[in-house]
Amino acid sequence: MATSLTIIKTPRLTETQKTSVLSLAALCRQKDRISLSYPVLPEDDILCHYLLSDSHGRIVSVLGLIPFDSSTVECTAFTHPDCRRKGYFSRLLSHALKSCPDQDILFPVSGKCQDTMAALASLGAEPECLEYQMELILSDYNPSPESVFHSACC
Predict the structure, then answer these.
(1) Which of these ranges, 43-47, 51-55, 64-68, has the smallest mean pLDDT?
(2) Which one of 47, 94, 145, 147 is CB 3.0 to 4.6 Å from 65, fit for a cystine?
(3) pTM of the predicted structure, to 2 decimals
(4) H/E element holding 32?
(5) Is 31 left (phi over 0), alpha (psi -120 to 50) or beta?
(6) In sequence order, what are the residues at sequence separation of 6 or more whose Cβ sits closer than 8 angstroms to the Cβ of residue 115?
(7) What is the mean pLDDT of residues 127-133?
(8) How many CB atoms are located within 10 Å of the residue 143 CB?
């Protein structure tokens, strides 16, 4: 029996949709051990959300487009782990591409999720850059007296 799927395109999420999307993103972050988030607030300046829901009304895949610059949009997407490799992301992406046919698309990734890397490889996506974050937690930092520099202001 084929599953009935519905795609919703919306510039703003309802509170119910927002709750479902955040739950889906949290589930994916936990399963894939990633830190990527999904933009749900109006100040996130999202162009459009694409939601794919199953016959029970459950959101199983979500894709959001955010303007990056005049020629580029950023695409953030999550698909429920049990629903991957069924073409759901591809369906949402094909709808999203109609909204930005002449723009480049950036796909932010977090970690090396196998499913994400497989989806991007199937698109022929290539890495644009690698970013590293460096962090110093000051509460854990206990420098020796010799390594502390003092400066004086006049």
Answers:
(1) 43-47
(2) 47
(3) 0.77
(4) helix 15-32
(5) alpha
(6) 32, 79, 81, 84, 85
(7) 59
(8) 8
